[in-house]
Amino acid sequence: MSLSPSSDSRSIRAARHARAALSRASRRAVVAAAVALGASFLMGNNAFAAPAVGQQAPDFVAVDTSGAKHKLSDFAGKFVVLEWTNPGCPFVRKHYNSGNMPATQKSATAQGVVWLSVNSTERAASDYLQPAALDAWMKSQKASPTAVLMDEDGVIGQAYGARTTPHIFIIDPKGMLVYAGGIDSIASARPDDIKSATNYVNQALGEAFGGKPISAASTRPYGCSVKYKT
Amino acid sequence: MILSRFQFLATFLVATAAACMPAAAQLASRPGAAVTTPHVRAELVAHAPNGVSPGAPVWVGLQITHQPEWHTYWKNAGDSGLPTELNWTLPAGVAAGEIAWPVPKKIPIGNLANYGYEGTVLLPVPLEVSSNFKPPLALGTGASGLDVRLKATWLVCRKECIPEEGEFTLALPLQGSTALHKTEFDAAQAAQPQPLDKPGTVEVSGNNLQVRLDGLPAAVQGKALGFFPETPELIRTAAVSGKDWTQSWQGGTWTATLPLADQRSASPTTLPLVVTLAEADRQPGQPVAWRTEAPVSGTWPTAAPRAEVSPALQAALAANAANAAAAAPPADLPAQPAGTFIVALLGAVLGGLLLNLMPCVFPILAIKVLGFARQAGNRSAHRTAGLAYTGGVMLSFLALGGAMLALRAAGAQLGWGFQLQSPAVVAALAALFTLIGLNLVGLFEFGRAAPLSVCSAQAKHPIANDFLSGVLAVVIASPCTAPFMGVSLGFAIGLPAAQALLLFAALGLGLALPYLVAGFVPAIARLLPKPGPWMNTLRRLLAFPMFATVAWLVWVLGQQSGIDGAGTLLALLVCMAAIVWALTLRGRTRLVIATVLVAFTAVLTAAIGRNVLQTVEPARLASGAGQRWQPWSAERVAELTGAGQPVFIDFTAAWCVTCQYNKKATLADAEVLADFDSKKVAMLRADWTRRDPAITAALTSLGRSGVPLYVLQAPGKAPVVLTEILGKDEVRAALSAL
């Protein structure tokens, strides 16, 4: 009773596949762990107090939806926008479905601003999206962030004190936090309100590029709570 | 008759239709009193135990029954969420009050916390019925009611959030009691915070709030309270009592220390707040919460400790400002730097002198001065005559200057302050100088200010006669004075009154100077050239500096309004010249050509005129590493000096000639630039071509009101303010002192 050659080779192939998948998974896990560790080291003292506007923005390392690593301090010399996002949140959908968020991203990145969308939704949350799914959703919305960062452990979100989706932070070329708050001035889930609201991100970037102080540097963010890992 | 009968019929039909409407509407699916969603059941309820009439208590409210684990929000939603919004539509004479928010509960979500309601909550709103309220008479039934319509939006969350809304209607009978929901309204009333007799105090201390409340009932004393600020974005909402925030009782005084939010965006002077008993401590029939509006003392920590000026710089700036305030007389117009003004005065004297050589003035001068020379006898009489003539000329000019100031005062509100930053003023000046130039080349003549008959008047007293002849010289010379007046006007219009008058006096002095000098030194008279064709040549020659000024003004406008603005301005100037020429024609030709030209200009102005007044954004400099000059901002200066780098700031503007000269000469000098590089000085340029309040503020804080201004600022040292006409050696010396 020996196995036929064909079934033998098939099982060998299956075993090899399984091993390869395992090693891919473990490699990803190791990278993720390293990144999380690196992020927590980088954040060090800032772990408990979120930065206020005018303070140094905590540095971090994160992997984006395609697995590439990004370090905030690598963008020194540029304005960086951090946008907390979660496609499951109706307020996020308000600003994506209406085209407001993609347009804001586009106008910012066209001026050389680095736009990082951060998803701090924990894996256990009902609206957690796998990186690939999140990426696909972003593409379907014609979004144009520089990168979409995965922060399932909430390390970056906690470091910045991100509370809502959306919640926006703007970091200046020197690494200083210059804006923290909402995407715009009318806290509602109604897309109709977008046209009459002040887009705080456009306003802040416009003022920053014009060499002017940011008139609304700290505003109330509105939206869903960030679904942090508890 | 037929018409009126027809009207009657129409009215009847409309009335019948209206009477049928309510019944029909009720049959159709229209908003009712309740809306049910997967997460809540929301119902519009009312409580009017004494019916609806002025003065009777009438309450309406939205009752929300949440699915387990779901919640909606209080007026301050906390870290996320949105308060429920109620929008009422009520008949005339009925007004809705504010929501009487029941006591919320703190709903922690991980490291965040919100304030809101779970289970069933009623958000009651009092209705005020005034005597103006005319209830509609419902035909058919005879009953009448108050129609209440509500559009409500609420955000309902568990971990996920769903924005929901609903439309509700309710008809309240006017007579008879509406008390179906008495229990709920009573419960909502019991859940209202009671006002505290004493407002209490809130003190900002470091990054904490110290709250102190007196007058809470004795039954509450010693109990732990919940704290709910009504102002959002103020305290760290998720702070846990006993761990992140503390409270204690001293007799009847409750005190608490609460941490401020890291990203606080509110700094109120009065804090409305609610304190509550814990659920376990609440007694039926007893108040559960208290509300007060406590005054806030102490200073809020600066949410943004950014763009801080170093203490040394602050001191230097204060000293600069004090010096400037002591030196300069208070003037609501920006004072020109002293150097520029002296140059302007000399220019005016020179302009006055040149005026003597104009064809309309020179013959008078020649006659008067040569008269002196011929009767060489009485030297002292000559001197007196010269002084009297000078007085007459100068006073006339001062009168003209005064008239200009009066005109300017009328236009002062229009803001003469930064006249060259306004494209309109630049364009107007360009037009003025074009006119002056055209006058000088002889395209047209200004009329004389007084008829000749007046000019030949003579006074009996010789000194008065000489004084009068000075005045008359100005009047007779007025056709030629106009261009020179125009130049002075253009400059003086931006000056404080005293300086502007001095400028006119200088112009007068220049005009009178040859005669004055001839009065003292008769030999001068013989040196004067004879009147002749050279005078017209000179006059035409002088048109070119005017046109050069126009060229410069067009360039300034180009900086402000772009190439379109500059082009449009040139086109309009051509039109203006053509109109001026047309007006010099005679008879019908003049009428026809001038009309055509004016019409053409009007059309052109309507079509493209606004190009002149538009302001285009400056092309933004890519802040690449290779760029020597960075755009200035106070934040950038603070950043750079904070990082230990010295900075050099060039406050400049396209319309500032000195600035352009310095930019092209000293600031482009290879040795100077090498010195900047060797000291690693960051170079910032503050461009004041357009209005920029930030730059204006920076100039003011340095004790200046205009450009150019050059500041070298090293970390920890007082800023060095360099001279307006920037010398190479001066800059290098300042740099080597770093």
Key descriptive features of the protein:
heterodimer, A: 230 residues, alpha/beta, five-stranded mixed beta sheet, two-stranded antiparallel sheet, 6 helices, B: 738 residues, alpha+beta, eight-stranded mixed beta sheet, five-stranded antiparallel beta sheet, 20 helices
Overall description:
The complex is a heterodimer of chains A (230) and B (738). By secondary structure, chain A is of the alpha/beta class. Chain A is built from six helices and nine strands. Chain A has helices spanning 5-43, 90-97, 100-110, 131-140, 155-160, 200-209; strands at 61-63, 69-71, 80-84, 114-119, 147-150, 164-165, 167-171, 177-181, 224-225. In chain A, the strands form three sheets. A five-stranded mixed beta sheet of chain A has the order 5-4-3-7-8. Chain A has a two-stranded antiparallel sheet with strand order 1-2. Chain B is of the alpha+beta class and 738 residues long. Chain B is built from 20 helices and 24 strands. In chain B, strands 12, 13, 14, 15, 16, 17, 18 and 19 form an eight-stranded mixed beta sheet that branches. Chain B has a five-stranded antiparallel beta sheet with strand order 1-2-3-9-6. Chain B has a five-stranded mixed beta sheet with strand order 20-22-21-23-24, sandwiched between helices. The N and C termini of chain B lie far apart (101 Å). The interface between A and B is large, with 49 and 41 residues.
